[in-house]
Amino acid sequence: MYKHIRLNNIRVVLSHTTHPGNIGAAARAMKTMGLRNLYLINPSRFPDPQALAMAAGADDVLQDAVLCSTIDEALQGVVLTVGMTARMRDISNEVASPREAMPKVLQEAAEHPVALLFGTEMSGLTNEEASRAQLLVNIPANPEFSSLNLASAVQVIAYELAAAAQIFQPAAMELQPATHEQVEGLMAHLEKTLYEIGFFTTQNPQRMMQRLRRLYARARLEPDEINILRGILSLTTEYNGRLKERYRQEHDV
Question: Are 62 and 154 found together in one domain?
Answer without folding.
Answer: yes
